[in-house]
Amino acid sequence: MPITEILERNAKLYADETSLVEREPAIGRRREITWKEFDSQSDKLANALIEYGIKRNEKVAILLMNCLEWLPIYFGVLKTGGMAVPLNFRFTAEEILKCMETAEAKILIYGPEFVERIDEIKDSLSRFVEKLIFVGEDCPGSTISYSDILEEYPAGAPGIPIDDSEEAALYFTSGTTGIPKPIILTHSNLLWACIAENKHHLQTHEDNFLCIPPLYHTGAKMHWFGSFLVGSRAVILKGVKPRWIMEAISEERATIVWLLVPWAQDILDAIDKGEIRLEDYKLEQWRLMHIGAQPVPPSLVQRWKKVFPNHDYDTNYGLSESTGPSCVHLGIENIHKVGAIGIPGYGWEAMIVDDKGNPVPNGAVGEIIVKGPGVMKGYYKNEEATAKVLKNGWLYTGDMARKDEDGFIYLVDRKKDVVICGGENIYPVEIENFLMTHDDIKDVAVIGMPDDRLGEIPVAIVEMKEGRGMDEDTILSFCQALPRYKRPRKVIFDKVPRNPTGKIEKPKLREKWCKTSKAVFV
User: Fold this and answer.
1) Most buried one in 307, 367, 393, 439, CB count within 10 A?
2) Which pLDDT value is given to residue 503?
3) Interatomic CA distance for residues 2 and 33, integer angstroms
């Protein structure tokens, strides 16, 4: 069935129950809607979009910060038979224009945070965008107010028949390794994300999911899908301060929280510094903390379990091309395997292969390939790029990994991030995980820096915890515990940039530091 039918079912079964809560602690605002209101708002937008001319497979772009309107708008687009195109809120005006052109979007729905960027490209957008819809107060001229749509259009379902195999959305890759590419996901892909997430984390109608990461990305939304499947509520938190996260968990009685690595670190640091006292919060209902979207240092999980010994923990691996984070997962029953990304997810297969696509022995490093119901249909209008990653039903992820004798997969690194030093392959994640065991280090990124003699050398960009300090010699001495060839040759003290989904932005670091082979201390 199309994923829109789940929303319609929830609206019937749980009409007056809360579906979504929005908390914006910076201004002290809290809003909520019921399942009936969620479905009704989606219907109204769908009916408006159909009147504006949106037909099956036509594109509607969504450029919003996380907010209470985001998910009803997303489902409203899907109900038209059209395709939702979520856009990264960090995109520049030119990137927005490029993605809109690539997706061939006819309508753009955007929020107040993007007025200046849209004004900058409005003339160019007018060549192919037929309508602009504004979500917020003080609606700019020449745009349609979303609030007016909710007041003026009927709440009845548009009645557009949708088949499971139909295209539902275009998601752009995160862009950490180049120009983002649009990924075609079908209703069947989205439905399977609901099923797999629920199988992995056992959500019931009584659960409450705290959503913090950006909804434009497959990660946050597809984790919420497990709760959506059973009609349980979710809280959208606008802000990532540790105190705000803990207050939301306590006051909303959240049971499931998905964190990115930096946020988990910040919470633990705030507890260590006495800025957060656990006894001030109601946390006994909090049953699961899970992390995905980037490699997770085992030391972080071990530290977390010391503070929260009763929490179930899971880590998830996935990519937009696999409809998000379900193709490999650790499993809450496998805490003894922390450090692994896990085993194939529900309904999935996974293999580690060499450059020719042949399976490698246990313990050997190769590329992860996955097969399952969440594999994308392909890259939009890009057969060449699609053929490079989809082969005989298998999705080639570009991630390097190894498998142990029990079948658990350990992420080694991105293929493009491997450092080749004197002919030896060095996998930065292994060095990053080691350095993260040091109590004074907050974050680490390891990149390859050009070297005349060795081709590349591994260089560690180290971000220290507040109030802590070390020099290069101390860190290099700490790294003596690593095999010689894996030891960083230089240390740079700098902030480690991460994108909204928590991935280290290594292209930025290479651009900043690899123009010269001399490390500069900041």
Assistant:
1) 367
2) 77
3) 23
What gap in Å lies between CA 280 and CA 276, rounded to an integer? 8
Q: Which helix (H) or strand (E) element contains residue 18?
A: strand 18-24
For the cut 60, the answer to whether the pLDDT of residue 70 exceeds it is yes
Nearest of 365, 374, 317 to residue 343 by alpha carbon: 317
Look at residue 218 and tell me whether its pLDDT is greater than 90.
no
| Cα angle value 508/512/513 (rounded, 5°) | 120
User: What pLDDT is attached to residue 453?
Assistant: 65
Order of strands, sheet of 233-237, starting from the edge strand that comes earlier in the sequence: 29-34, 18-24, 233-237, 208-211, 256-259, 288-292, 312-319, 324-329, 343-344
**Which CATH number is 476's domain given?**
3.30.300.30
Listing DSSP states for 128-186 in one string gives: T--EEEE-SSSPPTTSEEHHHHHHHS--S-------TTSEEEEEE---TTSS--EEEEE
Q: Which residues contact 455 (CB under 8 A, 6 or more apart)?
A: 420, 421, 422, 423
- What strand order describes the sheet that includes 378-379? 144-145, 131-134, 105-110, 59-63, 83-86, 167-172, 182-186, 378-379
Q: Which residues pair with 55 in a beta bridge?
A: none
In 372-454, which ranges are E strands?
378-379, 390-391, 394-403, 409-414, 419-421, 424-426, 441-451
Please report, for residues 26, 158, 378, 412, the alpha-carbon distance to residue 77 in angstroms, rounded to integers and kept in the order given: 30, 11, 21, 38
Query: How far is residue 382's CA from residue 152's CA, in Å, rounded to a whole number?
Result: 39
Rounded to whole angstroms, the Cα distance separating 328 from 376 reads 16
Q: Give the whole-angstrom CA distance, residue 167 versus residue 196.
A: 20
Candidates 57, 56, 20, 59; CA nearest to 37 is 20
Give which of 281, 220, 227 is closest to 251, Cα–Cα: 281
Name the nearest CA neighbour of 500 among 293, 301, 322, 268.
293
Q: In three state form, how does the secondary structure of 179-203 look? A: CCCEEEEEHHHHHHHHHHHHHHHCC
Contact assessment for residue 112 and residue 136, using Cβ atoms and an 8 Å cutoff: yes
Which among 63, 64, 68, 65 is positioned nearest to 29, based on CA atoms? 68
Q: Output the pTM of the full model.
A: 0.84
Q: What is the pLDDT of residues 478-497, one digit of tens each?
A: 999 887 878 999 999 999 98
The residue behind tokens 């996998």 is 427
Domain contains 399: no
What confidence tier does 522 reach under pLDDT thresholds 50, 70, 90? very low
Residue 520: inside a domain:
no
Query: Domain total for the chain?
Result: 1
Look up the domain containing 453 and give its range: 418-513
The helix/strand count (H/E) of the chain reads as: 15, 27
Residue 383 near residue 375 (C-beta atoms within 8 A): no
Alpha-carbon gap, residue 35 to 49, rounded angstroms: 21
- Establish if 277 belongs to a structural domain: no
Q: Tell me what the mean pLDDT of segment 267-276 comes to.
A: 95
Q: Tell me whether strands 167-172 and 182-186 are parallel, antiparallel or unpaired.
A: antiparallel
Looking at the domain assignment, is residue 475 inside a domain?
A: yes
Q: Give the pLDDT confidence of 282-330 residue by residue, as tens digits.
A: 999 999 999 876 667 888 899 999 999 999 999 998 989 999 888 999 9
